[in-house]
């Protein structure tokens, strides 16, 4: 069963790509596949940090609010600070995650309540930073300070390179450091980890901080791609982001998952969205489909031995 769960996501992705290619042969062109991958990177970046939280058995519902907030911050500060606006925006994202982790662990509030509350706070900050409107980024500022996110390096768009760097670094963090091992262990058997003397609260706070940082990076890249920041820029991204984590094979009950699986899940969600567009499914109906996909993915990946009672 474990082998089936491990190989199912990439097999499904390949089958979906072939199916969409059968509907629209031009979809399989190399340039088009690269464009689809580039378009998927903001979703992957937003989901990549939240993967750590879900692997611990938690949830971060603030990522879309954090992404929108950092898009507003970077757009508003670029004319004054130049490239320095980017680390300021990333710091704001990380601080949001840090606050979420502290609220959840120190006040012993369930993560979905804590992150929902933080989402409301960062949304308010986004409206304040943008003066309740979209903030346009001048073409010159974007070319000068955000080219690393929206330009081209050889045949590849820079969004792909940013996503691949994040995939590599976060994969190393999860698979090659004590922090990554602790994240898996907490998701698998938290009580045993507590009994072993590992600082569980500190690990959880760091995971939420990382989730906020990556959501902030997604917001900065999104602002660069669209040429503006907005308090509602990432409003439709929460459900697809959570869905791509679970579709990739990360268990909602924790302990199982990887950054690469989230990457595969993000590509799968993108291909599903494109396929629905080709067959004429409306944007609103697509949200219904993503909801159904999320329910199905949770049913397949969750470890029911950890859930004695469903409330």
- Note the overall shape: globular
Structural domains: how many: 1
The CATH architecture comes to Orthogonal Bundle
Number of helices: 13
Question: How many strand units?
Answer: 4
Q: Structural class given helices, strands, pairing?
A: mainly alpha
From the N-terminal CA to the C-terminal CA, the straight-line distance is: 26 Å
Quick overview of this protein structure:
With 311 residues, the chain is mainly α. It has helices at residues 2-23, 30-55, 63-81, 85-106, 111-130, 139-145, 147-150, 158-176, 178-195, 200-226, 238-247, 259-278, 283-301, and strands at residues 135-136, 152-153, 156-157, 228-229.
Characteristic key phrases:
single chain; 311 residues; mainly alpha; ABC transporter involved in vitamin B12 uptake, BtuC; two-stranded antiparallel ribbon; 13 helices; globular
Q: What this model shows, in words?
A:
The protein is mainly α and 311 residues long. The chain contains 13 helices and four strands. It has a single domain, classed as ABC transporter involved in vitamin B12 uptake, BtuC. Helix content is 75%, strand content 3%. The chain has a two-stranded antiparallel sheet with strand order 1-4. A hairpin with a 2-residue loop joins strand 2 and strand 3. Helix 11 runs parallel beside helix 13.
């Amino acid at each position: 069963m474990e082998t089936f769960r491990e190989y199912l996501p990439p097999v499904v992705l390949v089958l979906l790509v072939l199916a969409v290619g059968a509907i629209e042969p031009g979809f399989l062109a190399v340039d088009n596949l690269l464009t689809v991958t580039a378009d998927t990177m903001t979703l992957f970046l937003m989901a990549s940090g939240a993967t750590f939280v879900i692997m611990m058995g938690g949830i971060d519902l603030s990522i879309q609010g954090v992404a929108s907030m950092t898009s507003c911050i970077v757009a508003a500060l670029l004319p004054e600070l130049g490239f320095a606006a980017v680390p300021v925006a990333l710091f704001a994202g990380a601080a949001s995650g840090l606050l979420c982790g502290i609220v959840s662990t120190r006040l012993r509030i369930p993560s979905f309540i804590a992150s929902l509350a933080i989402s409301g706070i960062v949304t308010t900050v986004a409206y304040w930073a943008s003066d309740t409107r979209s903030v346009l980024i001048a073409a010159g500022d974007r070319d000068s300070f955000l080219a690393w996110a929206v330009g081209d390096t050889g045949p590849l768009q820079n969004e792909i390179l940013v996503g691949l760097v994040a995939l590599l670094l976060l994969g190393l963090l999860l698979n090659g450091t004590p922090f990554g091992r602790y994240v898996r262990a907490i998701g698998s058997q938290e009580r045993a980890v507590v009994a072993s003397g590992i600082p569980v609260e500190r690990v959880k706070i760091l995971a939420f901080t990382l989730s906020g940082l990556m959501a902030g990076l997604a917001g900065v890249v999104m602002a660069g791609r669209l040429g503006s920041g907005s308090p509602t820029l990432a409003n439709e991204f929460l459900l697809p982001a959570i869905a791509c984590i679970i579709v990739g094979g990360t268990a909602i009950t924790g302990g199982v998952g990887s950054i690469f699986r989230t990457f595969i899940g993000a590509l799968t969600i993108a291909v599903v969205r494109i396929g629905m567009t080709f067959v004429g499914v409306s944007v609103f109906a697509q949200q219904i489909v993503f909801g159904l996909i999320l329910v199905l993915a949770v049913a397949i990946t969750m470890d029911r031995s950890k859930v004695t009672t469903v409330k």
